[in-house]
């Protein structure tokens, strides 16, 4: 695969560009002499020209091409715009103020174009409804279908999705390592940093006191997830924070798990009111109970997406560190399979 090209003799500028490229997960081809750039000029997905060699490059007369940028460490130098025109660049990037844009440009150059991954949100109508188990089950079912799947824990007080997977001791980054991130994140770097097991990549919270996830950090993770994964499953908190609102704005589908009893429906109505402010259609997953499915969904005014029977042995299985049963012969597995067929298509 061809790499972005940098042309400069300025070692300080080159150090900055190498650092920015590393943040984007990109490797560079570098030449210090404009004449030596000719073999790479048309093949490189992106060219960054140092202001120090712009006039020399213009004298060589390279053919016009898209995605050429002029980089400089000298702010507000009016001569840079003349040099920008001379080399056919589309913009002058002044470092360090333009570093975030340059990260995005490098990342776009090295990441292949993909169809955005679907984002499925799961929320609980009340505590103990089983939303986290459903989120994990959907993600496991998708990964077993060889879909690239990212499971995101967005509930700081939920106890950790890695625990439901029996992988709380697994090495890898947690939200505490990512909360300061803003701007673009390379999906290859994100996947490499996070715990991955059985084909499933997981972002959860660490043990102990946790901090809320800023909306900017969630946005960066979601954008990377949609670029690099077929499916992103997010376990939402019942009380929506800024990060949860960011997720709901990108949701392909939102599932609300409701227990089929009077208090469960009343509690779910409160959660539903918050969800509807930030996302489109919300569908109900009904946990079997004393009320009929039609009564539950009619009371809430939401479409029925399916039901999940009570599984008395499930709590004991999870406490042993076993993953939720998602085989085709289980009710949970059958629901997850049919739901993924509806969202992603039967060929997914």
UniProtKB/TrEMBL annotation:
InterPro entries noted in UniProt: P-loop_NTPase, ParA/MinD_ATPase, Rv3660c, Rv3660c_N
Top-level taxonomic group: Bacteria
GO biological process, one term: negative regulation of cell division
UniProt GO cellular component terms: cytoplasmic side of plasma membrane; cytosol
Domain Rv3660c-like CheY-like N-terminal: 7-114
An example molecular function term from Gene Ontology annotations: ATP hydrolysis activity
Gene3D superfamilies the record matches: P-loop containing nucleotide triphosphate hydrolases
Classification via NCBIfam families: CpaE_hom_Actino (TIGR03815)
Protein name (database record): Secretion/DNA translocation related CpaE-like protein
Organism for this UniProt entry: Streptosporangium becharense
